[in-house]
Amino acid sequence: EWNDEFLKWNPEDFGGVKKIRIPCRHIWLPDIVLYNSADDYTQGYMQALAMVDYNGTVFWPPIVKFRSTCKIDITW
Predict the structure, then answer these.
(1) pLDDT tens digit string along 50-69?
(2) In angstroms, rounded to a whole number, what is the distance separating the alpha carbons of residues 52 and 19?
(3) Which residue positions does the secretion signal occupy (predicted)?
């Protein structure tokens, strides 16, 4: 959750609308990178909808399952 000054509006000017859902590809999002990713996860979270309040508060719940790889030393 963060605040975006460019996404503020006056609800009185828009029929009392105080909250909208918008495709996240249309707004700024923080970078989330899994460097050793085993999957291409970018399509899943870019399709999610962000919830934007009239005061500029953005809530973005990306629906993503991250899967990564790592080296394991199993010598005894």
Answers:
(1) 999 999 999 988 766 666 67
(2) 6
(3) none
